[in-house]
């Protein structure tokens, strides 16, 4: 008993535990997706700023928000900082994409191990339609229309 590995001690006990773990994994994937989307929006904003100030005179005044404080600088000082920030954000996005792929593989392995199948909403609708019979899609006119 004392010789069991850590992997075996982390095994879920029942179906509910498997479902909870699976739900947590899917939730984590969704969080990664939303963070990637958020950072990609910031990269896009940085690109807009860079494209807007690049053709301007480097000695021209511009303002930059630093920690909630608006600071007056020149374009020559601000442009490299904005470019560095954009590069840093792009690096974080690429790391998050790698983490996302790793997590997707982990979820796929988990699905295979516990034979998890996800029913699509269309399949659920099809099942209810079969139960209802052939009444679906029939147009009925007002009562007494044939008289």
What does this structure look like?
Keywords: Chaperone, Coiled coil. This is Prefoldin subunit like. The protein has helices at residues 6-9, 15-53, 75-113, 121-132, and strands at 61-66, 69-74. By secondary structure, the chain is mainly α. The protein has a single domain, classed as Helix Hairpins, CATH 1.10.287. Strands 1-2 form a two-stranded antiparallel sheet. Strand 1 and strand 2 (69-74) form a beta hairpin. Mean pLDDT is 85; it is low at 1-8.
What series of H and E elements makes up the topology? HHEEHH
Number of domains: 1
Q: Any idea of the CATH class?
A: Mainly Alpha
The CATH architecture category equals Orthogonal Bundle
| Broad shape | elongated
In which range does the helix fraction lie? 55-70%
Global mean pLDDT: 85
Number of helices, where a helix is a run of at least 4 consecutive DSSP H or I residues = 4
Please give the alpha-carbon distance between the first and last residues: 83 Å
Radius of gyration: 28 Å
Short description:
The protein has 147 residues and is mainly alpha-helical. The protein contains four helices and two strands.
Considering the chains and any ligands shown, give keywords for the structure.
single chain; 147 residues; mainly alpha; Helix Hairpins; two-stranded antiparallel sheet; 4 helices; 64% helix; coiled coil; Prefoldin; chaperone; PFD_beta-like
Topology, please?
Blueprint: H1 6-9, H2 15-53, E1 61-66, E2 69-74, H3 75-113, H4 121-132
Antiparallel strand pairs: 1-2
């Amino acid at each position: 008993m004392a010789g069991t590995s850590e992997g075996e001690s982390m095994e879920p006990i029942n179906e509910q535990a498997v479902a909870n773990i699976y739900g947590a994994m899917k939730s984590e994937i969704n969080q990664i997706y939303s963070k990637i989307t958020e950072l990609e929006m910031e990269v896009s904003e940085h690109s807009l700023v860079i494209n807007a100030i690049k053709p301007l005179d480097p000695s021209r005044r511009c303002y930059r928000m630093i920690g909630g404080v608006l600071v007056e600088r020149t374009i020559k000082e601000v442009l490299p900082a904005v470019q560095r920030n954009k590069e840093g954000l792009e690096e974080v996005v690429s790391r998050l994409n790698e983490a996302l792929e790793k997590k997707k593989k982990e979820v796929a392995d988990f699905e295979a191990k516990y034979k998890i199948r996800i029913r699509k909403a269309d399949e659920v609708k099809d099942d209810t339609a079969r139960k209802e019979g052939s009444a679906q899609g029939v147009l009925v006119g007002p009562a007494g229309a044939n008289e």
